[in-house]
């Protein structure tokens, strides 16, 4: 529901006007498709309808609304706002809403900050409200959570990575939000990086057999190997793996494995090491101090709370 704003009707804050742009690395075609699916969920099959708004708001009514952060955090997903509004306007046969964004994705904002101003047909704004807030709130929540990890690791030499534990259909958005928050993307899916885990080793017969099988079938991809013991890590390096996932290890064991792998690097070459599993913000610095290159945190995407963002129609 809209609440009354503090500015007079028709007013708009001055600021950026990137409404026609898309976030770097987020495919505009993906945005269009994701928005269309989301609107179908809310309105029914295109063109769909909003029985409340279309019954109570004149098609000719125009106004201004502000996109407002109710909680402080890191913003992400704002350029999707214009796409949602454009598709709603097309479905309703109404003029486009003018979008003026006042902050950029990746910016830290305080509670109460106005993120953007929307001016145009009120019907379009109200119909689009929940869909655009869902996208921006979800992305901003992931970015905000990621920033906490990035800040915790600042200066340590280690980076925080995301995982594939994403919301189905929203992986591109959530991984983009991780980048907005200062994190780094790992693999996008099963297609771009091979990750040999315990079940693959069981099926193949050994770590070496699994690594060799991947390299024979897909020689162009990076091979990563999961290990939860020192002997497994050394076996993986001996098999040719140059990226290890050190899974659910205590801090002392991590330090031992890192030291052993680093000691062998004059012969093997650089091996990238990732700590994963059982990681918390309280442990971030001590885990980074073991010398790992990365901490992968599934919670960035599977457990980030949505950032509270609202749309206020100005009275």
UniProtKB/TrEMBL annotation:
It comes from Pengzhenrongella sicca. Residues 1-23 are annotated as: Disordered. The gene is nadC. InterPro entries: Aldolase_TIM, NadC, NadC/ModD, Nicotinate_pribotase-like_C, Quinolinate_PRibosylTase_N_sf, Quinolinate_PRibosylTrfase_C, Quinolinate_PRibosylTrfase_N. GO terms for molecular function: nicotinate-nucleotide diphosphorylase (carboxylating) activity. It catalyses: nicotinate beta-D-ribonucleotide + CO2 + diphosphate = quinolinate + 5-phospho-alpha-D-ribose 1-diphosphate + 2 H(+). Transmembrane segments: none annotated. The keyword Transferase applies. This is Nicotinate-nucleotide pyrophosphorylase [carboxylating]. It holds the Pfam family QRPTase_N. It is an enzyme of class 2 (transferase).
């Amino acid at each position: 529901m809209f609440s009354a704003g503090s500015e007079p009707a028709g007013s708009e804050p001055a600021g950026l006007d990137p409404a026609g742009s898309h976030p770097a690395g987020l495919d505009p075609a993906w945005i269009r498709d994701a928005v269309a699916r989301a609107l179908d969920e809310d309105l029914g099959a295109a063109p769909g309808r909003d029985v409340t708004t279309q019954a109570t708001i004149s098609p000719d009514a125009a106004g201004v609304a502000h996109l407002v952060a109710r909680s402080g955090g890191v913003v992400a997903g704002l350029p999707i706002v214009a796409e949602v509004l454009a598709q709603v306007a097309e479905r309703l046969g109404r003029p486009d809403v003018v979008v003026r964004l006042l902050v950029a994705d990746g910016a830290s904002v305080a509670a109460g900050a106005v993120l953007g101003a929307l001016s145009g047909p009120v019907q379009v704004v109200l119909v689009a409200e929940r869909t655009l807030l869902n996208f921006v709130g979800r992305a901003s929540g992931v970015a905000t959570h990621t920033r906490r990890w990035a800040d915790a690791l600042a200066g340590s030499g280690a980076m925080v990575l995301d995982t594939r534990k994403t919301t189905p259909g929203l992986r591109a958005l959530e991984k983009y939000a991780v980048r907005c928050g200062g994190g780094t993307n790992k693999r996008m899916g099963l297609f771009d990086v091979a990750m040999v885990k315990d079940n693959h080793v069981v099926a193949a017969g050994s770590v070496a057999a699994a690594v060799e099988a991947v390299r024979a079938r897909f020689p162009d991809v990076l091979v990563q190997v999961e290990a939860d013991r020192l002997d497994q890590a050394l076996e993986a390096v001996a098999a040719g793996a140059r990226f290890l996932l050190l899974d659910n290890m205590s801090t002392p064991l991590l330090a031992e494995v890192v030291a052993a792998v680093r000691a062998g690097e004059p012969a093997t070459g650089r091996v990238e090491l990732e700590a994963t599993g059982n990681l918390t913000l309280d442990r971030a610095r001590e885990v980074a101090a073991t010398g790992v290159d990365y901490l992968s945190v599934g919670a960035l995407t599977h457990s980030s709370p949505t950032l509270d963002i609202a749309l206020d129609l100005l009275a």
